[in-house]
Design the sequence.
């Protein structure tokens, strides 16, 4: 029985097999399918999405005013009535401050990376495509910034400029621009010499067309993946700057600054002082793992 | 070889010069008149005029840079606004303390990372590998100043095993390698070691897996060599790459220790920088950044040279 039914099976299976070949058509569908099979990436994306929604809805979700405190209710422990996550050293509601603080922390983590990607990718692609003297000039300047450890460069620039959100953003952008330039330059250089670009040039396509149609789609993927991993670093650096008293200024809520001001309460309410750091850690770790997931789903080599 | 060393050193010189230029410009990106960044605001008018002339503040920027560089080469980094002492004097003590902390942290990170990486590579895909990878990923995305606070809560506040702040009795002047002082080093060093540990774990794992898959290790297996002897061959081949990562990490640690030093009040460059930021003491900020960045350039150079010496396959180009 088995020997009889098994032999026609491959033939019978063939009509089913044909659509499965058609199904794997587009690159992005493949990427989406690979991400769909990656539980870690999905969980991280879900956590980040929830967090983003929570901080966007902070004014409606917060039970109290994040800036209004009462010295009578200072340093209430986690789980006190009326203050689910306790109160800080000035009696302000922790839950409201964490929600509002997330807005600044996310902003300071994402904005510098966005700025760096726009400027860094333009300069990197220019350096990679133009080659020669332009490449020399841009890449040697980049080398100089690489001579600083990133924390030091960020502290140096925002230390000289003085505290403030704009200054922190400026210094963080400057830290990330050289890193984006390097990635953009190396991918552009490797794509530029491929045969299909050569034949596009030979068939008379203009520089703008070659860059827009043939170069960008192949270069932006790696830059995108790399920049998601930068967000994780930017989050930590930005809160670090606020922690040092650069970046955000009191009484504004920001996770790094909250971590700093709560340091005095570490002996009384150790659990309370851990909360802002936990927020930074979870966000940064999720962005990091999301970036890893995207990297393997998009088949980008690091 | 000698020619290569010479060329590599010559290549580092323009970088060092450019790094100095950026540090020089820090005074000029500070808001307000640069003279106010160099001397204290309540200095008498004739002192202000004297400093203006000495630093050439009325001359164009390139001339100022040359004047400034001349002073730096003579070991003059200006005077601290807050303490009134020469910046160099404060830096000597601080750099020594930071170097000590970073070296201990690098050593811990190196040993732990190498062990984790080797275990992960040998048990690839199984739970030791997954655990090591998770630890490495956590180590990279952990805000280490926060980890420092967690460690303080656990080991200082709750268990009361280790001190939380400072460098022991008598400050950094009376430092000695006995438990009385070393106990102050334990928590900051462990905190700082988490980042290099994560990166070393990833590197060692990658390198060891790559080497294990190479023909010569397969041949060694085929010859019936003991696993331990094979491991020796593997380690010899992995060493250059791991050493390179480690050298750079030491530089990052020295630059990045500012946050951890702030948490633990460790009297190093980080605390110096933190004070300089707080009091807007630009000469101290500038001098500290310059020295740390130059140390980083030097470390890069040493790592490159060491790697080429250890691994002749690296092209000397």
Sequence:
């Amino acid at each position: 029985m088995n020997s009889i039914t098994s032999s026609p099976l491959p033939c019978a299976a063939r009509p089913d097999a044909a659509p499965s070949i058609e199904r794997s058509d587009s690159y992005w569908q493949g990427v989406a399918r690979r991400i769909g099979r990656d539980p870690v990436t999905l969980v991280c994306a879900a956590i980040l999405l929830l967090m983003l929604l929570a901080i966007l809805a902070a004014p409606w979700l917060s039970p109290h005013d994040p800036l209004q405190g009462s010295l009578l209710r200072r340093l209430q422990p986690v789980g006190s009535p009326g203050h689910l996550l306790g109160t800080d050293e000035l009696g302000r509601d922790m839950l409201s401050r964490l929600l509002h603080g997330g807005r600044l922390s996310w902003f300071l983590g994402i904005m510098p990376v966005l700025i760096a990607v726009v400027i860094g990718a333009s300069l990197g692609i220019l350096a990679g495509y133009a080659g020669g003297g332009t490449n020399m000039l841009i890449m040697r300047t980049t080398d100089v910034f690489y001579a600083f450890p990133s924390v030091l460069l960020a502290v140096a620039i925002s230390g000289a400029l003085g505290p403030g959100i704009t200054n922190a953003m400026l210094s963080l952008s400057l830290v990330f621009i050289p890193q984006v330039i390097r990635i953009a330059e190396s991918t552009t250089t490797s794509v530029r010499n491929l045969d299909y670009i050569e034949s596009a040039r030979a068939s008379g396509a203009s520089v703008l067309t070659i860059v827009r149609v043939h170069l960008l789609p192949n270069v932006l993927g790696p830059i995108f993946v790399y920049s998601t991993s930068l967000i994780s670093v930017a989050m930590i650096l930005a809160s670090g700057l606020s922690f040092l008293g650069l970046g955000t200024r009191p009484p504004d809520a920001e996770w790094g600054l909250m971590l700093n001001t709560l340091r005095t309460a570490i002996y009384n309410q150790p659990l309370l002082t851990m909360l802002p750091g936990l927020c930074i850690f979870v966000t940064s770790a999720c962005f990091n793992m999301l970036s890893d997931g995207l990297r393997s789903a998009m088949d980008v080599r690091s | 070889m000698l020619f290569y060393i010479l060329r590599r050193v010559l290549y580092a010189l323009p970088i060092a010069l450019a790094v100095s230029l950026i540090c020089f410009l820090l005074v000029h990106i500070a808001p307000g008149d640069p003279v106010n960044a160099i001397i204290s605001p309540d200095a008498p008018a004739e002192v202000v005029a004297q400093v203006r002339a000495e630093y050439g503040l009325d001359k164009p920027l390139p001339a100022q840079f040359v004047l400034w560089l001349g002073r730096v080469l003579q070991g003059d980094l200006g005077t601290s606004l807050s303490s009134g002492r020469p910046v160099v004097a404060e830096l000597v003590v601080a750099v020594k303390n930071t170097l000590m902390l970073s070296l201990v942290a690098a050593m811990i990170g190196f040993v732990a990372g190498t062990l984790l990486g080797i275990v992960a590579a040998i048990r690839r895909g199984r739970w030791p590998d997954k655990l090591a990878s998770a630890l490495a990923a956590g180590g990279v995305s952990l805000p280490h100043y926060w980890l420092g606070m967690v460690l303080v809560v656990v080991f200082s506040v709750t268990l009361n095993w280790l001190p939380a702040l400072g460098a022991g009795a008598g400050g950094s002047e009376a430092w000695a390698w006995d438990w009385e002082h070393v106990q102050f080093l334990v928590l900051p060093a462990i905190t700082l070691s988490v980042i290099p540990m994560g990166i070393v774990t990833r590197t060692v794992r990658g390198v060891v897996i790559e080497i294990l898959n190479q023909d010569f290790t397969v041949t060694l297996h085929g010859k019936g060599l003991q696993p331990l002897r094979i491991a020796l061959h593997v380690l010899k081949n992995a060493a250059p790459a791991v050493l390179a990562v480690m050298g750079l990490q030491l530089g990052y640690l020295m630059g990045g220790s500012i946050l951890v030093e702030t948490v633990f009040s460790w009297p190093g460059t980080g605390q110096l920088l933190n004070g300089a930021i707080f009091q807007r003491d630009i000469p101290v900020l500038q001098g500290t950044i310059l020295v740390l960045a130059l140390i980083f350039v030097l470390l890069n150079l040493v790592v490159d040279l060491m790697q080429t010496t250890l691994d002749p396959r690296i092209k000397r180009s």
